NeuA
Amino acid sequence: MRVAVIPARGGSKRIPRKNIKEFFDKPMIAWSIEAARKSQCFERIIVSTDDSEIAEVAKQYGAEVPFMRPKSLSDDYTGTIPVIKQAIEWLADNEQHPSLVCCLYATAPFVEAEDIQRGLIEVTQSGVEYAFTVTSYAFPIQRALRVDKKSGLEMFHPEHFNTRSQDLEEAYHDAGQFYWGTTEAWLAEKVIFGSSSRPVFLPRHRVQDIDTPEDWERAEYLYKAMQK
């Protein structure tokens, strides 16, 4: 049994009601639900929320909300892993035991069914604990700068000042769309960013983490560009 769990709490502060704010023609969370349904990877698609309005919107677009997330897992400091673990434990208490669980973020309007399918293939065929989306940095991280205490600039790695960009190792970051994981890994709260994970590579133009109004605006620009 494979289950998608979409975390979507109601307390977003930087973008109020972010998870159900309309992104073009539908609520933000609907994009993730529809991609999950289209992928045909899941027997159940569950939204984990503490908010009754989010729950109703999720149901309208074909997801289940079989429980309300406890307040202890609904504050600003709760991480992803405890939320997924709680959902798995709820399923076990109701005599359902998934082998794989995919945490699919509610604010991932560019997630595609085919990528979810690729993640499933990676985690099942490779024998790893997790598979998740990554994309490359647009600029070599070895040449990153920081502002010092006197408001001047300095390199994090000054030894690479004269190193050609093409000679530097490419670096990647979490694309923030989904995380496939084995039930055992989620329950043990294993670290996702580790050697027992496999990447699902995405192009940079389909990656936008949405935490601030500026992020939201950039996502709108990207969406319009992709439609053209």
In short: The domain at 2-135+172-215 is CATH 3.90.550.10 (Spore Coat Polysaccharide Biosynthesis Protein SpsA; Chain A). The first strand starts at residue 2 and ends at 7. DSSP finds six helices and ten strands in the chain. The radius of gyration is 19 Å.
